[in-house]
Amino acid sequence: MTHKGAVAAGHEVTAAAAFELLEDGGNAFDAAIAGVLAACVAEPILASPGGGGFMTARKGDAGRGNPTRVFDFFAQTPRRKRARGDIDFREVHVDFGGVTQSFHIGLGAAATPGLLPGLFRVHERLGRVPMTRIAEPAIRAAKQGVRVTAFQAYLLTVVEPILTASPALRALFTDAEGRLLTEGAVQKNAALADALDALAREGEVLATKGEIAQAMARQADDEGGHLTLDDLRFYEVATRTPLEARAGDLRIETVPPPSTGGVMVALGLDRLEASHRRKRVPAPDIAATLLWMNTLRAECHGDPDALLARRAQLQADGQKKPQALRGTTHVSVVDGSGNAASVTVSNGEGCGALVPGCGFMLNNMLGEDDINPGGFHQWAENMRMCSMMAPMLAHDDAGKVMALGSGGSNRIRSALLQTALLLGRGAHPEEAVMHPRLHVEGTRADEATKLSFEEGWPDAERDAMARDFDITEPWPDPNMFFGGVHIAARDERGTLEGAGDPRRAGVFLKG
Predict the structure, then answer these.
(1) Which of the listed residues 129, 284, 292, 458 has the most CB atoms within 10 Å of its CB?
(2) Which residues, including other chains, have CB under 8 Å from residue 246's CB and lie 6 or more apart?
(3) Rg of the chain over CA atoms, in angstroms?
(4) Which of 417, 426, 407, 413 is nearest to 500 (CA)?
(5) Residue range 407-432, pLDDT digits in tens
(6) What is the distance, to the nearest Å, from the Cα of residue 166 to the centroid of all Cα atoms in its chain?
(7) pLDDT confidence band for 321 (50 / 70 / 90)
(8) Which residue in the list 112, 289, 328, 329 is annotated as catalytic?
(9) How far is the C-alpha of 486 from the C-alpha of 329, rounded, in Å?
């Protein structure tokens, strides 16, 4: 029996769209594009045509001159910076349930989006079936409506201040009585269906020069944004060589600079593999490594190239054994030919305004503090922004390949580091996904360090971690705070396996 492939994603509609393309003869890359487009419909808080992301892509014949490539279509800073007094840039507070976080929205928080040019570039290089077919599941879902899941309903309540920031958004995300949509409600988006249909038929030009691009530029000009039509016309998708690391017997390929997430995960893997080659890594050692990673990032002022240079320096020192170690969604696809696609996308939380007539929000990347380490409004013009997104592929010498990645803002690096460590030690994808996670905030130079962890670690390790950090925050149950790692894998015999992370309503399909 010939297997079509496997998909792991953050929503049933997203996963089903990708799997539909596999069933209809598309390859892993076609399926991943279909999944991302469907995510823009079914997961509108996490994915949008107005956002950006990365795809790590490996062809099944990678050993014959077709190496893994990373497609970088993340946000770019605009080419001109409007005066601060002329921009729409404001703070809102969201509640994750016990954890309150501030975000900045408005058209002045929107960077140049790259998602649509990125998907078209992947399709041009690696796709098999027409874009009109790839977009069908997303268009159908937008027209017929998507039933709001419990997880999506929760997300709506988290970012309610953003979703009620304009009349058009309120019309899309609230019912006739003005209440946020709840679990079971059906959300339709005719404007987005029309936009996706036009894009599939007319191509990328619609988003770079045509009607959709003009709508984005006009909105920014009228409502206090930085974007101009030139930002969209001259946006360039970058194709990069992946950054490599090891996790046990697995070779990891992930996103290089200017993304920060990939090099952070690689640094953590280097450190832990040097001390725990093929052995279980205790929780205190993981926590200490996450603290060390934070410290390195602070010392390098968040500069991914400086972090990469630090990694090279550490490797050149002979891999010395270290001292005792004390806004996003993802789609993973593998197909029957061994092609693998790992794609993570984000819209931040959205800028708080729908693009007129298009049914989607632009991003708020200029208002995300984690990717603006120098402070807001300090960005240099026309530069690719940093990101914590790090979609990765893992493969061994026998021919097994795994696509994995996570959403979760600055928790992405924590989630992927821990999951890769487990996979490298032989854990089944489901076991690796379900294992308790931890995350560290702060550095030793800060006033206080904070460890957040899911319950389930051995008591002795839990007690040791509590002694090493100023603040400890146990979470009784798995939570979306700790990311959502989705894995799709195929071994050398063609066996398919994987897992969707329930922390973010993950779905896994194979066949």
Answers:
(1) 284
(2) 252, 269, 273, 424
(3) 21
(4) 407
(5) 887 889 999 999 999 999 999 999 99
(6) 26
(7) very low
(8) 328
(9) 9
